Amino acid sequence: MNTAALALRLASGGLPVLPLRAGKVPFGNCPACARNQCGGRPNMKTPGRCACPLPCHGWAAATTDTHRHATAWAPYWERAAAVAYHPGGAGLTVVDLDNDAAITWARATLPPTRTVPTTRGEHWIYRGTMQSANAVRPGVDVKSRMAYARWLGPGEGAMAALPAEVRALIVKAPAPARPAPSGLTASTMTGECSHRTPAYLERGLAMAEERITAADSAVHATVYRVFLAVLSTHGRCGCLTDTHVNRLFAAAQAKGETLRHCSDAWANALTRLGV
């Protein structure tokens, strides 16, 4: 069965699908959507403000609209190398096991569920959605919201509910307060924000999240400026923990930024401030 016929069959069955080109990557933005001209990439819950009928936004373009697949998307399906789907849009989570060691770990750790063989390992599919994350442990990725997975067949076995063991894979314990750089006074090396109250930090983080969420364009630049502003105020006093940083990253990822973009922006802000 060719990709177009497979896509129509899956979409008619309620699975939101999209075409992948060679290299297992989505098709790039059309001219109207290039460089965020359409108003920014879609957020976590909706297809966003862009009304483009083409598969321009990766996972968020995935649709069950068979008419769209058969008309506007037909030229893309003719060139497609594979079919992908949006697990989160289907109410699913895929645990992508990339090698034999990862499969061995899953069999010893996770509840049995539907499995699909891949070229190097297996997909374990659960009912329920969660945040996606790569490299949650060696050879293991989690694909659900804001992600896509290749369709490799229906798999075998009964599908289980998303277990706590999978949700726990993306939870990180808060890191201890960052040590203050040399040259700071003793009053700023206590691990607390001595010149501001905890409420000030909370207000600052909330405002930072709002600025990122409200960005209508230039999302990359906005995220970097927000990270820079937060670090310039609290980056040297030791009050920021991974919990705070994860809040900022989550707001940025909800606007379509990748984890790598977030990490790069944070690192660049740290470098700029010499923190």
Record keyword descriptors for this entry:
single chain; 275 residues; alpha+beta; four-stranded antiparallel sheet; 9 helices; 10 strands
Structural description of this entry:
The protein is globular, with a radius of gyration of 21 Å. Residues 41-48 and 174-192 have low confidence and may be disordered. The chain contains 9 helices and 10 strands. The chain has helices at residues 3-12, 66-70, 74-79, 100-109, 164-167, 198-214, 219-234, 242-254, 259-273, and strands at residues 17-21, 25-26, 82-85, 92-97, 114-117, 122-127, 133-137, 140-143, 149-150, 160-161. Helix 6 runs parallel beside helix 8 (242-254). Strands 4, 5, 6, 7, 8 and 10 form a 6-stranded mixed beta sheet that branches. The longest helix is centred in the C-terminal third of the chain and has 17 residues, at 198-214. By secondary structure, the protein is an alpha+beta fold. Helix content is 35%, strand content 15%.
